[in-house]
Specification:
There is one protein chain. The chain contains 2 helices and no strands. It is mostly helical. It has a domain of 52 residues. It is elongated, with a radius of gyration of 26 Å.
Amino acid sequence: MNVSKWKIPLTLAGLGGVGALLFSSRGRKLIHSTRERLNQAPERLVAWNDSAKDELNHIQQALQALEQSIGTHTAR
C-alpha cells in the first residue's frame, strides 16, 4: 500500500476539521471550556495531592496502631 499518495488528502482533511472547530460557535465553546479546565488543573492537582497525603497519613497511623495492638515490632 502506497501511503505517500494519502498524505496530502489526509492533511487537508485534518486542516479542514481544525478549521471547522475554530470557526464554529460550538467549536469555540469547546475550546473555551477546555482552556478553563486546563487553567483550573493545577489547583485541582494540588488539592488532590493534599487529600492523598492526608489519606496516606491516616493509613500509616492505623497500621501503627494495629502494630501496637498485636505487640509486634519490626526493624526499620
